[in-house]
Please model this.
Amino acid sequence: MPIDLLTPSGVTLALLPAVLLTVWSMVVLLVVAWRHGSEEDSRLAGWLSVVGVIGAAAATLWLWQSGAKSTGQPHMVYLDAYRFVSELLILFIAGATCLLSLRFLGKQRLLAPEYYVLVLFAAIGMQLMVAAADFILLFIGLEIMSISVYVLAGFDRFRRSSAEAALKYFLVGAFASAFLLYGIALVYGATGQTNYVLIGAQFAGSDTSLLARMGLALLLVGFGFKAAAVPFHMWAPDVYDGAPTPITGFMATAVKTAAFVALVRVLADAFPAFTGLWQPIVAVLAVASMIVGNVVALAQGSLKRMLAYSSIAHAGYLLVGVWTATDLGRAAVLLYLIAYSITSLAAFGIITAVERVGSRTVMLEDVEGFFRVRPWGALSMGVCLLSLLGFPGTFGFIGKWYLMSAAIDRNQLLLAVVMGIGSLLSLGYYLPVVMAMTMKPERTPDAHRQVLFSRAAKAIVAAAVITNLLFGVWPRKVVDLARSAASQMSAPTAPRPAGDR
Amino acid sequence: MRPFLDSIGYAHWILSVLLLLPMAGVVLVLLAPERWARWLTLIVAIAEFVLALGLWWAFDPDSGGMQFAFTMTWLPELGISYRIGLDGLSLFMILLATAMMPLLVWGSWFAIDQKVRGYYALLLALKTGMIGVFISLDLFLFYCFWELLLIPMYFLIGTWGSTNRLYAATKFVVYTFAGSILMLVAIITMVTIVARGTGETSFAYDHLVRHSDLLAPYAPWLFSAFALAFAVKVPIFPFHTWLPDAHVEAPTAGSVDLAVILLKMGTYGFLRFAIPFFPAFALSRPVAAVFVALAVIGIVYAALVSMVQPDLKKLIAYSSVSHLGFVMLGIWGGTVASVQGAIIVMIAHGISTGALFFLVGMLYERRHTRLLADYGGLARVTPRLAAAFVITAFASIGLPGLNGFVGEFLVLIGSFGRFPIAVGIATTVVVFSAAYLLVAVQRVFFNPITHPENQDLKDATPRELAVLVPLIVAMVWMGLYPQPILRRTEAAAKRYVETVRPFLPARAPADVGAR
Model:
């Protein structure tokens, strides 16, 4: 189905999933304006949001399956498999976050149903980010997402740490947005364009101007903040620790997915001529993230904080894929985003269930003896941790192995070896959790009485864990999907720099 | 026997069935009521052993290639397949692993009285991993099984081990994972290099060995990564410190499985992968000198450390390090005799050290101590256990007529041409191993009874005899008539030697062992 993206109706059709979700979130907002008192109302809003997400996902699938292709000139949005897959992933995460929050909000007395609307708004921003082929749309998407997530991070009004998280995230995030905007402005100044492909075409063959180089550097800083890569990671631990747990999971997975997909797009389409310039920067960010994230995670007692630092390390692994600037690398980034998101989501789902009423966070001691009381929950958590570690038989291993292959394919052994060392370091903090759950006795006889696993949360965690194992053993379908998505990316692939064997 | 096996198509399905049966057993044990767990495991174990026994007859001893091969595509675009097969080297590892299984169940029958279901499920899962490692002919598959083994072993040590179990379990996993993570990088690098040279991306073992000449320029790094993974597992001298901890803290069955199979995975890795992939580098003089020197240091050092151990289990754990030094020596010896000797030592060490760990476990169940000082004079109280222990100790020492002698003798004569000094040192160490084991036997069984608790210990029960007798029969049989085993390993050893011979330094480096 050809879509002419120069007409308003064409753009609307191409952004149909985001448009639908916007309309629906307005409806939910209206509903909660009248019904916002009881836990029942909150749950109603949650279920309505899930319905909206499913609708948007159906629209995405329809666009994808109908073979939507853009015609004519470069345009505002992409219509390719890379976008559709990442969009579906984001919608899945948003829906799962709503389901994981259903009972959690009641348990923690956070009965304000606007929560779900904000999750939907954030998802809309992310949809725009992964679809954007133009810096303006990217920035709009980024802001919609960021502002919604700032509010969500501070949603627990009764806790100081949550307010602190929101404020920190807001200040640092605003700073990052400014960097990004400044970068966009400089690039615009150098080229007179905001479209990625047109910018790329302007740069091709010409000398790289200082203006453009500065623009690229500022863009990388902005993306580094959003993706929480070292040295732009300082905000992440406090924010992840302070935010309500389902939101922490949402930030660690969906925000990361949106940021990385946009980063891959921008670098591949707008800056292929600068590959020699940005590759060393990305490599340094990757190595720093892998080492710092993993080493600092070793010292954490709080599970949420530990996972926050580990997510910094995972950003480092993903940056290795970004570094390659090849189809294989872009496929690996997509594959790893899917693997990492599914796994992290389930892990945060379990932590959400374990979290005690009014407790600040979940400590390592809090899960001691968890296996005896909740064997399936502990097993699922174990699978998630092994997958994050990159253990064979799990989806995480396939993702990590693919990223390593992509790096080695570009003769970059150093990054692959650092990835290996990073995995080894991460053993040091994932293993104690497994040990605490299975081999240590409970601290107190009623240690796990407050564990609240709603049926919806159970279903999400079970689905994620089963998918994880299934793709770990039989990854053919999803690997093919990532490969074909990366090879169909509309723009020409980055030229390989000289000296490539 | 052959016609019957052919008539049921044995060769086509046997390896996959051996791999899947324990996995099915895991599910069965987890779903069934807890009191059935050990019976179900026993049934699966016996079925597995009976099925595996057919390999003894179905195996064609004259062929050095892979037999019972089976291939199924898994990720064709990436060159990954489910490729399995078996040769004379892996045949005995499989037979050993499956034969040990029923004994392990009998051995843990009463010793494990809590979380029974999880214990037997893990024991079965461990078995799947072991069999997978030895039959994988695809490096991706091999790596998966290699790592998957860690999980059941981790939980076996950490949950059912003795006092210091959490430390030992963590140390075991960290060491092994640290060793093998770089192997993953090396595997991917190898495949990428070979794919560039040949245009075919494939993780198949045969494909990579055939094009090993393409790997030669990168051999130092790649070989080091493989060697590190295998050296930790063997374990070679400076990487051995996880072993005593893991052995001492593990429950009896865990110790036995570690000694019988897991340690052999390291030497198997050298024989199957590390050396055939990079023969020129691995067998070059400096590298050979390092490994032979480490092997000899391991033999001597571990024997000396064993002599001063107050803990019986630790003593046997260190003796393993010493024995596996002989295997390493034989592998680098590079003659048919030395390689066959290495394989025989692997089998013999499995049987006799396995038996020793079983015996220590039985003593522990009676007295709840492993310290030599707490025993004494048990020969009068428990004559059957004493007899079994003495025979096993003699087998482990390498007394002619028992299984330990055959392999060590072959290793020594086979390696003498290349490493005379190393062989000279290793030969004298046999005296040490006699010293530490005989002293241990004396202190446990023959000194006067000094502890009144030892007065009325129970002698071996029929269940315990069912564990020990088959092992002792195997020791005697292998010692007196090793011919059938030698015949079945000969072709594989020859093939290995033919692969490496062109790369052996032309003149025998007479002083290599002394460096």
